[in-house]
Structure formats: C-alpha cells, structure tokens
C-alpha cells in the first residue's frame, strides 16, 4: 500500500506512469504532476486505456519549492519519483526534505547556466537526509542506474577484483528523421558537446568532444562507432568499486547524427547562453529544442534495438577475466507495451524498479545513495521480471581489453 508522486510528464514520465500502474500491489495510488497538465492528462488517458488504471494528474512548477512542499504535505506520498529535468533535482530534494518524503531521480543535478554534471551538489544532502530519516536514491535510470547495478553485481558475484570498466551504450534504432534526439534534446546536446572525460588510476583525464572513437562489436546490434564521453555514473563508481583502475563511458553515434551536430555547433545553435533576438532573450539551444521533434513523439516511428552494457575486466580465482553484462531492448516492443521508444523505456523501467524496492523495504535506507551502494540482487531479479532482461557473456581477455594492466 503506497502512494507515489511522479514529477515530469515527458518521455520518461510516461513510461514510469505505465510501469507503476502495472504493479498495482506496490503502487496503490499514483499522481502524475508536471508543468504542463495537458501532457499529464494525455499520459493518464493512455495508462487508463493500456493498463486499465486511473491515475490522478496535477499541474506543478517544481522550481517553486514552497508550492511543491505544500503540495507534498497535502498529498502525503511515500515517495517522489523525479523525472523532470536535472535542473529540478535540488529543488525537489529540498521540497521532499521539508515535507518528509523519500526521493528518487534518474539524472544528477546540473546548474542551468553551466553544463556540468557532478554529484557534489546532491551528495551535500547526505547528512540532512540521514538526520531527517529520509532516503534519496540517485540515478535510477539505465545509465546511470542499471549500469551501476551491473557493476555492483559483477563485484559481488563475478570477480574478486575489478580493474577496468567500459560502459557502452548503443542505440541502433532508426526514427526516420534526418536529426532528432532520443531524449530531451537540450540535455542530450549539452552532454555530448562537452569535453570527454574518463578516470584512470585516481585521476580524471580530459579529451576533446568526440575525439576518441572505437568500433565495438556489440551483441545483438553488431559493430558500432562508439565515442568516449563523460557520464555521471563514473563519478560514483570510481569511489565504490574496489580496486578499480580505469573507467570509461562510450556512446554510439552515426556519421549522419554527428554531421548534423557539427553544423548546429558551428552555427551557434547549441549555445545555452541567451542572446537578444528582436528584443527577446532566447537561448539558441532552447530554441533548437522547440524546433526538433519531441522525443516523446518518436515512439511509433522508431525501429531497431538498443544494447547497453558494461565490459568489465578483472581477476577471479587468480585468473584474468572479462565479461560483458548487457540488456538489449526493441523499440517497437516498448511502443506496444507503453507507447514509448526504448530510450525512455530503458530509463523509466529502472526508475519504477528502484521505487518498488524502496517501497517494498528491500532498498529503504536513510541517507543519499547511489545505485551501486545497495544490494544488486533484487534489482537484477526485477529487471528480468519487468521488461529489461540481461545477459552475461564471457569475453576473451585480449590485448586491447587488458592493455593497461596485463
Ligand atoms: P522531457 O523533456 O521529455 O520531459 C521532462 C518533463 O519535465 C516535461 O514534462 C517538463 O514539463 C517537466 N518539467 C520541466 N521543468 C519542470 C518544472 N519546473 N516543474 C515541473 N515539471 C517540469 O525529458 P525526458 O522524459 O526525456 O527525461 C526526463 C529525465 O530523465 C531527465 O532528467 C533526463 O536527464 C533523465 N534521463 C535519464 C536517463 C538515464 O538512463 N539515467 C536517460 C534519459 C533521460 P513541460 O512538458 O512543461 O516541458
């Protein structure tokens, strides 16, 4: 018996609403709250049609902490699932603290004025959450989220020591548009136009955006161009995986996507600083977002599969060992189930699973936590149960994989 409030009615919010509605024993009452009530109502109508459940909707501006706190005090939910934008993380963490509600999100806080993904702002809430006996679970999406849990599972069951982790994210789906982003374009473009960064032997190393590439032969989707990027889960994993010596993150992009992005960058359309346009202050990146296809509309058009996983090298029983733990998801199957493409699906399902583990008590713990700090086993079980089955394959410990250590 528990009540949950989902904040954010975009691509991910829709999936979370559908998936929570499917688990009627855990999520007995669901309220979907976001800035634009029409988007909440559209999702609620789809949930009623596909899952046969009523969910309530409400208009809120999460940036107004006092109003959100009052809303939470009135509703008294057991948990708030934040799938608005990373800019709302701190205001929602403040409102949850003030109203005495547990908190979960899928992306770390980013100040709107500086594209900088760092946990420091949210980790600064640790003591306050502990003292208030409240829980905040950070990054319960796919990456971050499932990728952290894959690493925790590998640490617990597959290795004695983990030396290197490469997180690889491939989307081999096609939506038929010349250029569109699969989730919020502003967040996506901010992420990939920053310098790439990886962690090695205790130090962060920077590379020019999209300057390091490998062709990785993925299970299911085959060889893909994968580019080294900074991604937030590395920041907590390099602290929490014992013996780790290097961690990198790779995402696949087609040549077509990168050419569009290069042009947009060259003409200044990816800038987030505001400019004066005919007497109005606009940020080119926000304007670009307005003219690009809405990620939530890509569902019916997207065909193909994703494959996201962790290529992990280490030692087991004195022998070098390498595995790839991954999930592959089919865009059209996701659409049939929850009217969304696989990118929002692979984020929304883990958000629901993290929420269910908190509400069922298996992951409930005072304080602020990253995913790999909690027991991976029940999460891995629920991934198989609720739509994101995973596989572990043994890989050859070849020269490339082990270049640094063997
Ligand atoms: P969308 O842009 O599609 O949706 C965001 C929603 O948040 C919109 O409904 C928007 O309202 C709402 N919102 C924005 N600001 C406010 C506010 N101040 N108050 C209330 N609601 C607000 O994004 P996505 O659904 O694609 O992504 C949601 C989150 O998931 C993001 O944080 C993203 O970074 C994260 N994510 C995480 C991934 C992972 O694997 N960990 C992968 C993909 C995404 P409106 O409709 O009015 O604009």
From TrEMBL:
Gene3D superfamilies: Dihydrodipicolinate Reductase, domain 2, NAD(P)-binding Rossmann-like Domain
InterPro entries linked: NAD(P)-bd_dom_sf, Sacchrp_dh-like_C, Sacchrp_dh_NADP-bd
Protein name stated in the entry: Saccharopine dehydrogenase family protein
Domain Saccharopine dehydrogenase-like C-terminal intervals: 141-388
Residue span(s) of domain Saccharopine dehydrogenase NADP binding: 4-137
TM annotation in the entry: none
Organism, scientific name: Rubellicoccus peritrichatus
